[in-house]
Design a protein that fits this description.
The protein contains 16 helices and 14 strands. The protein is an alpha/beta fold. It has 2 domains: 321 residues, Rossmann fold (3-Layer(aba) Sandwich), CATH 3.40.50.1100; 120 residues, Glutaredoxin, CATH 3.40.30.10. The strands form 3 sheets. Strands 1-2-10-7-8-9 form a 6-stranded mixed beta sheet, with helices on both faces. Strands 5-4-3-6 form a 4-stranded parallel beta sheet, sandwiched between helices. Helix 1 packs across helix 5 and helix 6 packs parallel to helix 7.
Length: 505
């Protein structure tokens, strides 16, 4: 099916049985909201809030949207705003995962961080201030009825349709904005009243489970709940009970609250990956942990569905991935060593055929090369997908240096094999066949590592200034930070060996 826009792919997420995690006598299911285009359940509310505002005339063409979010709503809003042409500013406490910031910025949003100590109320207040100061549209996800409505109309409907031929005894969900809880619970109460609704909540921050009422807002800004404490289940249980969640409780839509330890949420998120092949985040692990609590007292034959809100990829920098290394562990090293080819430290096999003699460099290519070198004060000869080329590009960008980027493998240089011929001429001119090669003021600086060494010695800055190029290096710039991660890992691993060799001498 052809879609007119990415926004038409929001919703319709699958329900998958989690047979290997379910205890005997109980069927456990997860609704995989990571199948939404932005990777989380929040895509639904993002689309609903923006379209409702458009319909009601509250959001004008080109107007900036602003919202406070732990990340997933921000990603969803960034996706929707990109597709519809609205600028977006997101406020987010600095404690949330870096992956979320990168995703939002990649989709064009501006991300304003707030101090972690101010918790969710701090980022909410910042969003309110920005909206009032600049006349921006505030999405108000924690109280916007469009949030709950979209879940009643879509998520709830999808669940009811999935269980048409089988009873659904329990529905388990974490609570952030409360939109999923309120919307789905309303749909279930209307058509499946036997289904019990269970809220998963951080054990050390029992806001709903404590029975302590939420303090009233001050000037429209929610106040921190007295039972809140920081917890690792990102995207759930902010430091206040949202209006939508409070509505669900007041309407009698919540049958039970299941407190979940942070460690259990992490463990079950890993179990989803290891035993079910489901890549999901910490809140998904919390929902599964709560569902397994429910299963302990459920009648034999019971069916439990839990919402799995997002993908695990946006938790790479969090404790969820602690212990998962980027380099080979001992077992992987042993597997690599079990066969002779492609082993680090092994002698290279001789080439099966002699290397061809280098082709002659033609005068036309040499002349074209000299013209390119003279086209700009700074000229970089590179390849489009060479990691070292990108490292040198990053260094030049960090220095705010304008440069001419000549990609020798670009399609426009393929005619007449001009790119290949230029590369031969470049190897002769530079005295080295490697790529990239940098020229400043018509003079050859060298390759990636040469340029980084020249920066460290100050020679690169002097060459740029002599060529009339202003240099603005940020403080404490470490050029090696731009190198490929695999190379920096190898260099770090070799440093102790080098130290041993020096010591032995």
């Amino acid at each position: 099916m052809i879609r007119r826009s990415i926004l038409e792919t929001v919703g319709g997420t699958p329900v998958v049985e989690l047979a290997r995690l379910a205890p005997p006598g109980v069927r456990l299911f997860g609704k995989l909201e990571s199948f939404n285009p932005g990777g989380s359940v929040k895509d639904r509310l993002a689309l609903a809030v923006i379209e409702r505002a458009e319909q009601e005339g509250k959001l004008k063409p080109g107007q900036t949207v602003v919202e406070a979010t732990s990340g997933n709503t921000g990603v969803g809003l960034a996706l929707v705003c990109a597709a519809k042409g609205y600028p977006l500013v997101v406020t987010m406490a600095e404690s949330f995962s870096i992956e979320r910031r990168l995703l939002m910025r990649f989709l064009g949003a501006k991300v304003v961080l707030t101090p972690a100590a101010l918790k969710g109320t701090g980022m909410y207040l910042k969003a309110v201030e920005l909206a009032e100061t600049h006349g921006w549209f505030l999405a108000r996800q924690f109280e916007n009825e469009a949030n709950a409505d979209i879940h009643q109309r879509t998520t709830g409907r999808e669940i009811l349709d999935a269980f048409q031929q089988a009873r659904l005894d329990y529905f388990v969900a974490c609570v952030g904005t409360g939109g999923t809880l309120k919307g789905v619970a309303r749909a279930l109460r209307a058509e499946s009243p036997r289904t019990r609704v269970v809220v998963a909540e951080a054990e050390n921050a029992p806001l709903i489970g404590s029975g302590v009422p939420q303090p009233p807002p001050v000037d429209g800004v929610p106040q921190s709940h007295p039972r809140f404490q920081p917890h690792p289940i990102q995207g759930t249980t902010p430091d206040f009970i949202s209006k939508l969640a409070a509505d669900a409780v007041a309407e009698g839509l919540v049958d039970a609250v299941a407190p979940v330890k942070g460690a259990d949420a992490l463990r079950q998120a890993r179990a989803l990956a290891l035993h079910e092949g489901v890549l999901a985040g910490i809140s998904s692990g919390a929902a599964v942990a709560a569902a397994l609590q429910v299963a302990q007292t459920a009648e034999p034959g019971s069916t439990i569905l839990c919402i799995l809100p997002d993908t695990g990829e946006r938790y790479l920098s969090t404790p969820l991935f602690e212990g998962v290394g980027a380099e080979m562990d001992d077992e992987e090293q042993a597997i690599a060593a079990s066969t002779p080819s492609a082993r680090f430290g092994a002698p290279a096999r001789p080439a099966p055929v002699p290397a061809p003699a280098p082709a002659a460099v033609d005068g036309e290519a040499q002349a074209a090369l000299e013209r390119l070198i003279g086209d700009a004060p700074v000229v970089l000869f590179a390849l489009e997908w060479c990691e070292f080329c990108w490292s040198l590009r990053k260094l030049l960008n960090a220095l705010a240096v304008p440069y001419k980027d000549v990609s020798l493998d670009a399609a426009e240089l393929a005619q007449g094999e001009l790119g290949l011929r230029l590369r031969r001429a470049l190897a002769l001119r530079a005295g080295a066949p490697t790529i990239p090669q940098l020229f400043v003021g018509g003079r050859h600086v060298g390759g990636c590592m040469d340029a980084m060494a020249a920066f460290r010695s100050g020679a690169l800055q002097q060459s740029l200034e002599a060529a009339g190029v202003a240099v603005q290096p940020p403080p404490a710039l470490e050029p090696e930070a731009f190198l490929p991660r695999w190379l920096t890992a190898v260099r770090k691993a070799e440093e102790p060996k080098a130290a041993e060799i020096v010591g032995a001498k």
